[in-house]
Amino acid sequence: MKHPLVTQFALAAIVAAAAASAGAQGPQEVQAIYAINRQAVVLLDQGRYDEAVAAAKSAVAQAETRLGKDHPGLAAALSNLGLAYLDGGQYDQAEAPLRRAVDIGRNGWGVGPADMGALLNNLGLFYARVNRLDDAERLYKQALGLGGGIGTPQLFVATWLNNLANLYIREGRFQDAWSLAEKSMVLLPDRSSRDPAIAETFSLMASLKAREGAYGDAQRLLEWALEIRLRAFGDGHPVTAISLHGLGVVLEERGEHRKAEDLMLRALAIRERLPADHPDLGRSLIDLGALCHAAGKPACAQAFFDRAFANLRARLAQYFGFMSEDERLGLLEDTNRFFSAYFEFVLAYAGRQPELAGGMYDAVLARKGMVAVSVRALLARIEREGDPQAIALTVRLRERRTLLANLRRRGATGDAVDRLAREGADLERQLARRSAAFAAQEERGARPARWQDVRAALKAQEAAVEYIAFEPPRGNDRSAHRRFAALVLTPGDRPPRLVALGDADSLAAPMRDYRRRAGLARDPSPAGERSFREAFWTPLEPALADAKRIHLAPDDILNQVAWATVGDGGGLLAERLDLRLLSSTRDLLAAPAPVSANGAVLVGDVDFGSASGRAAFAPLPGTREEIAALSRLLADAGWQVKSVEGKAATESYLKGVRHPRVLHVASHGFFERQGARPGTPDDPMLRSGLVLAGANEGVSGANDDGVLTALEASMLDLRGTELVVLSACETGLGRVLQSEGVFGLRRAFELAGAQSVMMSLWRVPDEETRVLMTLFYRKWLSGMDKHLALRDAQLELRQMVIRDRGRDRPQAWGAFVLVGP
Q1: At what angle do helices 257-271 and 279-294 cross, to 10 degrees?
Q2: What are 662-698's pLDDT values in tens digits?
Q3: Are the CB atoms for 360 and 342 separated by under 8 Å?
Q4: How far does the chain reach from its first CA to its final CA, in angstroms?
Q5: Is-contact 11 115, C-beta < 8 A?
Q6: Distance CA 200, CA 187 (A)
Q7: Which of 492, 605, 681, 781 has the smallest CB count inside 10 Å?
Q8: What is the per-residue pLDDT across 507-526, written as a single tens digit (0 to 9) for each?
Q9: Which pTM was predicted?
């Protein structure tokens, strides 16, 4: 349920007081500035956001010139300007005036508790809208801390309580949200009042009731809210549209489709006047698409979905121009609503309208790795433009991430750690803003990748497979599980084929079967359970036709599957098919990236230091032979080779490596499950890493503690690196984030610029790893494609294992996967 932005701050009392003691400026001059500022507030209340921006800009300019840079009248104008940008959907412009207004309030003069609370609240609204929830909560609580001050209106306090409650709903803290809503109700007049704060409280209570399935109570509360907003704002105001749309959603849940559609169309008619990338317009469009789907009107649904995705693309283009990576990831929850509703629609109708699968494929190309792609593009843009200030910001960001990683790995908490995290995020935002102009120039006239582009990139007997996982839209069925499907594309004139695979519950048994067959689980296989192949591969085979090379883009849990070990009747899929893993089949469209000259950096036989009586990383003597063998192979092929071993194999050294064609690290790797030990960081990019020299001794220093975390690895300079090989245990593991892949070392090295990454999905035996790596490099250096080289090396090692042990043991040969073109 939407949480409205309450425009309630004019600082009238402050400006009026300033007018009474204006001094050199003169009361009339101050009153004239106040009049412009008040005009901006009126325009805001009327929903005329462009005009409000113009009036607020005029008030800011005059207040700054005539009142000074620390005057409360300037704070009023700045805050109203920020709100006008915010309500109008121009989030990229909203933060600066809102922050400056707070700074004036804190450091200037004449700002009382009520007005300071309003300033803090308004900046908190911006943070909430861009998913900076911790910052928003901090500001709301500061505002509420001022709520007991003399002269603070109860409606102000009620509004701040409502905003904090809405934030708690987003965080899943429903009981806390309800408690705040009850406190807000105590402060409010009865519902005969025209004050919109009452409607705000009813709306948030309705959202809590709807989450419990109490749609009757939710409907009654929303009807009251609508009644108040109609009295306060009229029937054409964007705030009224919030109630119209919210009530329509609840009526749709109750099965009253006609009434729901009427209300939601009334809301849309109001929101059509908002900017094309406004989030409220997007919500109307996606929910109306879902409503048309539920009503059995596919043409109507498709029209709304098309407009919804145009809105989303425009919105993301704006947001990504000022957000940090974490904030972009926070947007995924919002974007998932769009994709889930659309995917559900396509699954329902693609049997009758096969062409819908093409639209779904286009949506998947846009969705998969959305944030990772944006971060890689930003870093590449900085390097290409050579902007000295952006490069300096990148250096500072690298330093902050190293300090943060070292502190959090040691279990440090507190203000200093939190400050480092905030500084890092702010540096990311500055980088995004500096590169936004360049991005706009690059992307002007560019169009999104489409399924026809992927089809054109396929050769004879090739196919592209996009696996998809998505949460079904929440409706009356609260027990619905995550769903899986696949899109299969082959050369020729055919659109993609959509294959429904089932939900997470029905696919749990096939995943257990995979783990048993890979030797990762020992529990017996119950009779009648579907195999992994039967669940995830056999349904695709009719669409694959005669394809022998399959470009495979997994999603969700399938990112953790070693596909070389997947059975094919009595054999393996890999014995008859060339399976190539990609983050997205969009990667097939990228022009071949220039690679560095034939240079390789090989890291191994690391001296981890003495154990000092505590749990320690054991030496890996087998890596000495591995590095020596690979060094000979590469040197014989004419490569320039740098072997780094022993105490020299430090974290600092690895951070200084600059885009070799191959980076090979043979050491310990790790991924810690959340909560595996006291103080385990929440961030998966800090729970995965590579172990380097001195790790047992906890090497001191800001840049080197002997562990290269994934967070730090993401800042390496590997643009131009064709291949990173992480010859270590569990380097491919991490937290799987739907549509964004695996958060851990894999993501880190992809963000750093590596074209392809080879990594392991479980603990790997020392000797078999050495043999596999030697076989792989020998085949690759002889001219074989690296995907085929890995496949053939694994199959050859498999035969050795069968010969030596008398049976197949996939865990000895199948752990490594290669992801990338």
Answers
A1: 150
A2: 999 999 888 877 655 655 667 788 888 899 998 888 6
A3: yes
A4: 42
A5: yes
A6: 13
A7: 492
A8: 888 888 888 888 887 776 67
A9: 0.87
